[in-house]
Amino acid sequence: MGKISVEECEIEGIKIITPQVYGDSRGYFFESYTLRDYKEAGIECDFVQDNQAGSRRGVLRGLHFQKEFPQAKLVRVLKGTVYDVAVDLRKNSDTFGKWVGALLSDENKKQFFIPEGFAHGYLVLSDYAEFAYKCSDYYHPDDEGGIKYDDPDVGIEWPFEKNVDIVLSDKDQYWASFREYVEGCK
Question: Which of 38, 83, 122, 133 is catalytic?
Fold first, then answer.
């Protein structure tokens, strides 16, 4: 497949994309997104918004989703290293409530495609990381949802480092448990 290789994950729809990187004495070059290549890979989203965030070691953002305006996301790291996670919130899915994670860095240049219907979050593992992602719908502040990053029913195996404090936003400290999320959807 052209300029990207695509790894299917154990959860349907999630993909890890590795671009073909060209390097020489000047540095490197790669196409971070080409519509044609992504369509060939089965990723057919109309991305409408690009976001970028910078965070220090120990920052954990997530697990976020939009309730009525779900977003597919194509995420990557511009600088540093993060552990990126998606949790399946599709009620009719065989993998409902399951999670998958990927190590993304400026060195491996991998991207993580997360379709609509997932909660998403990441943990910064380097001293500092810059994180960028494309979204298939606009951000709607009144539509935010989330689940606890450390919910035992989901059981994400975050690669926490000893002697590094986890830093959460006020909002991320108080999301519902996965069980409360499920009960609220009935």
Answer: 133
Nearest partner of 84 among 116, 40, 124, judged by Cα:
124
Q: Which of 64, 83, 120, 149 is catalytic?
A: 64
- Burial state string for 145-168 with b = 16 or more CB within 10 A and e = fewer than 16: bbbbbebeebebebeeeeeeeeeb
CA 103 to chain centre: 10
First to last CA, the chain: 42
Q: Is the dihedral of CA 175, 177, 181, 184 positive or negative?
A: negative
DSSP characters for 84-99? EEEEE--TTSTTTT-E
Is 133 tagged catalytic?
Answer: yes
Please give the chain's pLDDT, 186 residues, in tens.
468 999 999 999 999 999 999 999 999 999 999 999 999 999 999 999 999 999 999 999 999 999 999 999 999 999 999 999 999 999 999 999 999 999 999 999 999 999 999 999 999 999 999 999 999 999 999 999 999 999 999 999 999 999 999 999 999 999 999 999 988 875
Provide the residue count of the chain: 186
Q: Please give the structure tokens belonging to residue 71.
A: 């977003």
